[in-house]
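Batch job 17 of 40 flagged for manual review because the log was empty.
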Amino acid sequence: MTSPAAGRTVPAILLVGASRGLGLAMAARFVKHDWNVVGTVRAGSARTGLHELAQQHPGRVGIEILDINDPAQIAALRQRLEGRAFQMLFVNAGVTNRETETIGAVTTEEFIRVMVTNALSPMRVIEALQDLVPATGLIGVMSSGQGSIANNETGMREVYRGSKSALNQFMRSYAARPANATRAMVAMAPGWVRTDMGGADARLTIEESIPRLVDVLLEKRGRPGLEYLDYLGRTVPW
């Protein structure tokens, strides 16, 4: 997309999961960086913060419908975006369960819900949409510091931790494919942020995390390979 006033091409991000929380804050921050944003919300959603952002920035923010757990919706989104190019694809998706629920106590249905949403579906989205991102672009996922096996010294959130560790492993397998050798990729750890998922006791506000996280993503674009980084750009041990 070109900015007529500036006579230049405006970069664009496809942001999966942007209706609220971290995803919405990312969308707003990219607009501030003069990027165009296409964000996804689920079907049947009431008017979201992303709709408000799109109204404030006509022509700069687009909205697409997607439930990442529905392969047919992923395929339909890919078809709708045919011919588009995005300098960044970022999948911000995640659910959690009760933090005290142990792996031995969780029901099979709940385990499947968390693992599919946090690990399988983000990778399905990447597999389906990767060709919309040029080789010089970036593909990223919202992981978590709790996905680090090396840093797990306190336990808790066992199923959630496992799902994010699985996502990290799948990203490493994806990055190891010869076709992706020169692509920039990232698994982001945003820190413990006060959102509906993070809770009221979280250490960081969205305003303390997301602007820095976006800066890390913008800087990472020029550095090929997969990295596991936090919102300050520090390497997180796998």
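Reviewer: the log was empty due to a logging misconfiguration, but the result itself is present. The longest helix spans residues 108-129. Unflagging and moving on to job 18.
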